[in-house]
Design brief:
single chain; about 190 residues; alpha/beta; 7-stranded mixed beta sheet; 8 helices; globular
Length: about 190
């Protein structure tokens, strides 16, 4: 079973965090939400407070077991993630080992600042293109380039999540989860 850590900081974008968590768990992926806060309580950009599964310090040693490290966007959530040195170190190690990293909306700024996007195709929320240091901006809902996946913004949370699920499992699992959630009906009816 694939293992994923999703990092939460105050100011995270609600749907960019919770839709991927929901979709991946439905697909049988072991997903753990991790906060960089001092307590498990974390408040979204829209004032929703939730409890993360664990604190960063509690899983720091286990991060090397991850198949994917995922950063939701939102402001100031992405900036808060970018200020956490332990998280940035973990991302560099993960990427350096050829393992998957992903970020959506404003959060690709963290990857860009670490040099992870240099020479890669990537997307982000419009207006954050300048933070993708060295990347080729695609403007797509979801862009995959090697072991890096980036998403555009809140409306891209579903396609981003299914893309990640397919990478961590297989196309059939992603299709079945999308069908069960009626996502395919949505995209085929428009």
């Amino acid at each position: 079973m694939a293992k994923v850590f999703v990092f939460l900081a105050d100011g995270f974008e609600d749907v960019e965090a919770l839709i991927p968590v929901d979709v991946m768990r439905r697909g049988g992926v072991d997903v753990t939400t991790v906060t960089i806060n001092e307590t498990q309580a974390v408040t979204s950009a829209h004032g929703v407070t939730m409890m993360a599964d664990v604190l960063f310090e509690d899983v720091e040693e286990a991060l090397g077991e991850a198949d994917l490290l995922l950063l939701p966007g939102g402001m100031p959530g992405a900036s808060n993630l970018n200020a956490h040195e332990g998280l940035k170190k973990a991302l560099v190690v993960q990427f350096g080992q050829g393992k998957k990293v992903a970020a959506i909306c404003a959060a690709p700024l963290v990857l860009g600042g670490l040099g992870i996007l240099r020479g890669k195709n990537a997307t982000c929320y419009p207006g954050f293109e300048g933070t993708l240091e060295g990347a080729n901006y695609t403007g797509e809902l979801c862009t995959v380039d090697g072991n890096v996946t980036t998403g555009e913004g809140p409306a891209a949370a579903f396609p981003f999540a299914y893309c990640l699920l397919e990478q961590l499992t297989d196309a059939q699992t992603a299709h079945d989860v999308a069908e069960g959630m009626r996502y395919l009906h949505l995209v085929h009816s428009s």
